[in-house]
């Protein structure tokens, strides 16, 4: 069969981005409600449990009222898998994405949180652009788009480190534990821990973010990583930090790891902490 | 669960215990990073800090027909550099989220101030507990402007009380 080029307009991409970003921020978030309700059932009485009840109620209220779950509607992070047969004749991807983000911000009353320049004036760009785009060129005639609204409270306690090359699973475990102990109460727990192992300084970070795209309860396809994820989650849930840091059994909802090859002299690792208000939406054009 | 009216009297302040959930009713003032920077830089606090709690919060825009958008707390630790000066000026109650340093906790004890933690990420629920919003300074800061909010039964947790109690001590 002849490979025919598929034309997709900038407008189609912008509209998809607007709808994904709005949906991610407001809801519905049924699987998250299910997941949080599940840990609530196991949580001990006390302020941590009471906070968890409020977190769950909030997800329902946000959906009913059409309000963002959290006022920090984040930095918009857009992951794009662009098919090699797709042509966008009328604009650039970054332009189409920013039009979509800016439109969502205006129409759905999302908070503009981007400031520029980062030093000095720090003026708000007032439409939450620019978005951050991670582009992957793949085979096919479709575009897969995932939008993540990532709040700063959790981003601020995330960390990228170049570990000694032979630090192994223990090195990863120690790094994640220090990260969560130092920062979890500031990151609106129970948190999701995304870990990127390998690549280099910048790709380990992207990998950790990408790990957060995995569906709730979906297992890692690499058995060793699946086991390490389980160990990390179990260990961190023994810390007692609990929902909002108020004490309890649930500090970490899930751990998710992705890996890439790396230089023989390096072991780059990024631990990306995600708050309980996990906001991701995807579609295929 | 008891409702606590603002401003909190000294008697009531002493009865608060770390870990307790309370419902706050009355006036609070929003301020976060940019507003704190300006308050200290210009030595000007655009509200009565002795009686009005500081709420570390920058809301999302209000949709048509709403008083305010999503209104959850932001991370308190970022405001720590400004806290000593504001405590000196009489700040008694802070509303935010997340643990702050041991040094700041000592200062809260020293100045007889209480730290209340709202539920981070629960901004839509908080929005339903706000009856009015009035911008009082630095409107150009957008979400970081200082506003006076009238709360009606906003659920918060006593994080640090006046008796050296902390909600953040249950970890192992």
List keywords for this structure.
heterodimer; A: 285 residues; alpha/beta; four-stranded mixed beta sheet; 8 helices; 12 strands; 38% helix; 25% strand; globular; B: 172 residues; fumarase; five-stranded mixed beta barrel; 21% helix; 27% strand
Write a structural description.
The complex is a heterodimer of chains A (285) and B (172). By secondary structure, chain A is α/β, with parallel strands linked by helices. Chain A is built from 8 helices and 12 strands. In chain A, helix 6 (168-183) runs parallel beside helix 8. Chain A is globular. The mean pLDDT of chain A is 97. Chain B has a 5-stranded mixed β-barrel with strand order 2-3-4-5-7. By secondary structure, chain B is an alpha/beta fold. Chain B is globular, with a radius of gyration of 15 Å. Helices cover 21% and strands 27% of the residues of chain B. The interface between A and B is large, with 50 and 46 residues.
Oligomer: heterodimer
Structural class of chain A: alpha/beta
**How would you sum up the major sheet of chain A?**
4 strands, mixed
The most extensive interface, with participating residues per chain, is:
A-B, 50 and 46 residues
What is the element string of chain A, with H for helices and E for strands?
EHHHEEHEEEEHEHEHHEEE
Order of helices and strands of chain B: EHEHEHEHEHEE
Low-confidence stretches of chain B: none
If you compute it from the alpha carbons, what radius of gyration of chain A comes out, rounded to the nearest whole angstrom? 19 Å
Average pLDDT taken over every residue of chain B: 97
Mean pLDDT of chain A: 97
Q: Given the C-alpha coordinates, what overall shape of chain A results?
A: globular
Number of strands of chain A: 12
- Choose one word for the global shape of chain B: globular
CATH class of chain B: Alpha Beta
Trace the largest sheet of chain B across and list its strands. Answer: 2-3-4-5-7
CATH topology of chain B: fumarase
């Amino acid at each position: 069969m002849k490979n025919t080029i598929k034309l997709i307009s900038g407008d189609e991409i912008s509209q998809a981005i607007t709808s994904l970003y709005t949906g991610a921020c407001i809801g519905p978030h049924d699987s998250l409600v299910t997941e949080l309700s599940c840990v609530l059932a196991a949580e001990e009485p006390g302020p941590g449990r009471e906070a968890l009840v409020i977190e769950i109620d909030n997800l329902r209220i946000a959906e009913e009222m059409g309000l963002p779950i959290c006022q920090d509607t984040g930095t918009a992070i857009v992951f794009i898998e662009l098919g090699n047969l797709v042509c966008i004749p009328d604009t650039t991807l970054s332009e189409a994405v920013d039009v979509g983000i800016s439109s969502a911000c205006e129409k759905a009353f999302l908070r503009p949180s981007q400031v520029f320049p980062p030093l000095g004036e720090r003026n708000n760009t007032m439409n939450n652009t620019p978005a951050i785009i991670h582009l992957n060129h793949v085979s096919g005639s479709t575009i897969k788009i995932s939008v993540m609204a990532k709040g700063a409270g959790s981003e601020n306690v995330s960390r990228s480190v170049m570990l000694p090359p032979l630090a192994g699973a223990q090195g990863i475990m120690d790094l994640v534990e220090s990260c969560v102990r130092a920062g979890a109460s500031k990151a609106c727990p129970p948190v999701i821990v995304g870990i990127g192992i390998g690549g280099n300084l910048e790709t380990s970070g992207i990998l950790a973010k990408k790990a957060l795209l995995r569906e709730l309860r979906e297992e890692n396809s690499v058995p060793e990583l699946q086991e390490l994820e389980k160990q990390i989650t179990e260990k961190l849930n023994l810390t007692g930090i609990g929902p909002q840091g108020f004490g309890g059994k649930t500090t970490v909802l899930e751990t998710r790891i992705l890996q890439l090859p790396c230089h023989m002299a390096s072991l780059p690792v990024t631990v990306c902490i995600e708050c309980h208000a996990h906001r991701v939406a995807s579609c295929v054009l | 669960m008891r409702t606590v009216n603002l401003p909190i009297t000294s008697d009531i302040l002493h009865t608060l215990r770390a870990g307790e959930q309370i419902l706050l009713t009355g006036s609070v003032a929003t301020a976060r990073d940019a507003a704190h920077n300006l308050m200290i830089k210009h030595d000007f606090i655009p509200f009565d800090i002795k009686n009005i709690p500081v709420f570390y919060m920058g809301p999302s825009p209000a949709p048509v027909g709403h008083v305010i958008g999503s209104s959850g707390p932001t991370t308190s630790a970022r405001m720590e550099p400004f806290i000593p000066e504001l405590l000196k000026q009489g700040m008694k109650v802070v509303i935010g989220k997340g643990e702050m340093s041991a040094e700041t906790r000592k200062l809260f004890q020293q100045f007889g101030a209480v730290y209340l933690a709202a539920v981070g990420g629960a901004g839509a629920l908080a929005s339903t507990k706000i009856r009015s919003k009035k911008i009082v300074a630095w409107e150009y800061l957008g979400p970081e402007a200082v506003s006076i909010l009238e709360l009606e039964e906003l659920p918060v947790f006593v994080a640090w009380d006046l008796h050296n109690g902390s909600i953040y001590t249950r970890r192992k």
